[in-house]
Design a protein that fits this description.
By secondary structure, this protein is of the alpha/beta class. It is 51% helix and 14% strand. The chain has 23 helices and 22 strands. It is elongated, with a radius of gyration of 35 Å.
Length: 654
């Protein structure tokens, strides 16, 4: 430790010595060699030297100018030395006027202070420039090599730079420039920026940190080749999705490795931008919608929130979003302890002790265990994101799907009433609309339970319905990624299938905002825009991956699967909310007696343990539950009629 302290002192006083040499040179020039009308005697020289020396170096020491690490000095360091020397000049002037010493003109005094400051700034700029030119061992030679390059107009490439990966940065804005600075200031970085590519006329043709800024037209493949660029890094977070996709495909087809400098897609507060691989979701879909607002944030502030299924894809993102809103407490309830633990550790890293976070391992079907949780924490808001959601699996496990999804929701509703919760919010799905599978039918039954409870209970209830979630467990994109990574084939059940998609943050923000908007009993629906054809999705992912020869194979529709999903987003038939993307579906709640009758039927069917009996009973209690064959046959008939009409129109035109 002593040696480290000595080294620090040595470095500081070495810089003082260099500044002293500059001061001696300036004082020699202006106080001794100067031959003006106010020429000083030897005593006057000593007096002025003493006053100026004390003023300049005392203020610099007090201002901690010599405690800064100038190799990393930014603009704030240079502003600091300007301010300290300005104070030193005022002090010098005051002492010169007030003390009985030989006087010099104001211009001469100002010139001495300014020349001394100029010398100090020049010394530091030269040192920082030399440091950035290369590593510590060869800094001196590297610096003079750079000087010769500037004089001769030649770009000399050092050995260390040859070994680094050369990149072009798309975006010369704040993010791109900070990224370039980070690379330039880091000796151990494996990357070196060679050029910026930007569309701003104010920047194109100029340089930033010695790096040229080119327009997209100027940044031809030939010019990039001259600079030996190996990778392209996107550093414009706000770039439009279609523009990003076009640039991605252009440079990908040219053979460049592409990366992005930004937060990870699962961004959380306190995170840091870093260079990473592109997520395929960033290239396939529209820019993510920001649904939440100040009103939503204010609603959840200082509230005790219980999230069931809090370790799952949606539940964990609900926790991340809620943590930003400063709740009083978040209780994560899940049957799968690993998922809950992962979310807990992630949020602890970001928020530490600022966030009161509790974990409870429990199934929502276990009412006595649930009751202990309600009794202990007295949650004000309950969000139910716990559910069995995999369509094909639930077709063969109908009893379990009903127990977990339907009776689990019933348990939560009853406990919310018993323990005086303010609000209950249910996460639903587009598969609940005219369901053709067990999972969708159980979710529709949950919606009916919640809407019915809103008519006779004391808690405010709402349900939020959205489509497929990108990147969630069991979703199609992770499956396609794995299949492409393994060399294919990519499997789709039917080339005609279309689905609505949204991101996990969008889905979570929608749930939270709709819950804050709810008065009581609403079934919220998000306008998710145009649906995506799964075949197009698979083809785009294969093309963007750059892997050749991947085959797409149809495997046939799975049990309970239909060719399209419905969200019932017909704006003329829905009620509007304050958010233009959120609508309320008009639906008539059932009476408590009718709901109980349906639940009794389901309980009796589940007690048999027969999945087929349970499924048939589910069809009785959910009138819109249809067989997929009926729905898909209707779709096929409509498609055939459209094709026939198109052919007739072509014939008529001929």
């Amino acid at each position: 430790m002593r040696s480290i302290g000595k080294k620090k002192r040595y470095i500081r006083w070495m810089l003082v010595m260099y500044d002293l040499l500059i001061y001696i040179a300036v004082a020699l020039l202006l106080l001794i060699l100067y031959r003006g009308p106010d020429q000083l005697t030897n005593i006057g020289v000593m007096q002025q030297t003493g006053i100026s020396f004390v003023s300049i170096f005392a203020v610099r020491l007090i201002g901690n100018i010599y405690g800064q690490i100038w190799r990393y000095g930014g603009i704030q360091c240079y502003v600091k030395i300007l301010c300290t020397d300005a104070v030193a000049f005022v002090l010098y002037l005051g002492l010169e006027l007030s003390l009985p010493v030989e006087k010099i003109t104001f211009a001469r005094l100002l010139c001495l202070s300014c020349l001394n400051l100029l010398g100090a700034l020049t010394l530091r700029m030269m040192y920082r420039y030399a440091y950035k030119c290369g590593n510590q061992e060869t800094r001196k030679g590297r610096f003079w090599a750079k000087v010769l390059d500037i004089v001769a107009g030649v770009k000399a490439e050092n050995v260390k730079e040859v070994q680094k990966i050369k990149i072009a940065i798309i975006g010369a804005g704040r993010v791109g420039v900070s990224f370039a600075e980070e690379l330039l200031n880091n000796e151990s970085s494996s990357y070196v920026p060679r050029c910026f590519i930007d569309t701003s006329e104010a920047k194109v043709g100029r340089e930033i940190h010695g790096i040229p800024v080119w327009s997209e037209d100027e940044a031809t493949l030939a010019r990039l080749g001259e600079l030996k660029v190996q990778e392209i890094v996107f550093a414009i977070p706000s770039m439009a999705a279609d523009k990003r996709k076009a640039l991605y495909e252009y440079y990908k087809n040219a053979g460049y490795k592409l990366k992005v400098y930004d937060y990870p897609t699962t961004y959380s507060p306190g995170g840091k931008r870093h260079m990473r691989e592109f997520d395929i979701e960033e290239l396939l879909f529209r820019k993510q919608l920001v649904v939440s607002d100040e009103r939503t944030n204010a609603y959840y502030k200082d509230k005790v929130v219980l999230i069931t299924g809090g370790g799952g894809s949606i539940g964990s993102e609900l926790c991340r979003q809620l943590a930003k809103m400063h709740p009083k407490k978040i209780i994560i309830l899940d049957i799968y302890e690993n998922g809950a633990y992962d979310v807990q550790q992630e949020l602890k890293i970001v928020y530490g002790k600022k966030l009161d976070l509790q974990i409870e391992i429990c199934s929502i079907t276990h009412k006595k265990a649930l009751e202990k949780v309600f009794e202990r924490y007295q949650p004000q808001i309950v969000i139910n994101a716990a559910a069995h959601k995999h369509v094909p699996l639930m077709e063969h496990n109908c009893v379990e799907a009903i127990y977990n999804n339907v009776f689990g929701t019933k348990n939560l509703v009853e406990l919310c009433e018993q323990y005086g919760a303010e609000r209950f919010m249910m996460v639903s799905t587009d598969k609940a609309v005219n369901p053709t599978n067990v999972m969708g039918a159980t979710k529709r039954m949950c919606e009916m339970i919640v809407q019915s409870a809103s008519t006779h209970g004391h808690v405010k209830y709402s349900a939020t319905r959205f489509g497929n979630v990108l990147g969630s467990a069991g979703s199609v994109i992770p499956l396609f990624k794995r299949q492409i990574a393994n060399g294919g084939p990519v499997t789709i059940t039917d080339k005609r299938i279309i689905r609505y998609f949204m991101t996990i943050p969008e889905a979570s923000q929608l749930v939270l905002q709709s819950g804050a908007l709810a008065n009581n009993g609403e079934l919220f629906v998000l306008d998710m825009g145009q649906p995506v054809k799964i075949l197009d999705l698979a083809e785009n992912m294969i093309r963007l991956s750059g892997v050749q020869g991947i085959e797409i194979i149809e495997t046939g529709l799975r049990p309970g699967e239909k060719l399209y999903e419905e969200l019932l987003v017909k704006t003329e038939e829905l009620d509007k909310t304050d958010n233009s993307m959120i609508f309320v579906e008009r639906d008539t709640p059932l009476s408590a007696e009718e709901i109980q009758r349906k639940l009794d039927m389901l309980k009796e069917a589940c007690d048999t343990g027969d999945d087929q009996v349970a499924k048939e009973t589910l069809r009785k209690v959910v009138p819109t539950f249809k067989k997929p064959e009926e729905v898909n046959k209707k779709v096929e008939s409509l498609e055939q009629a459209k094709e026939h009409k198109k052919k007739e129109m072509k014939i008529a035109m001929l």
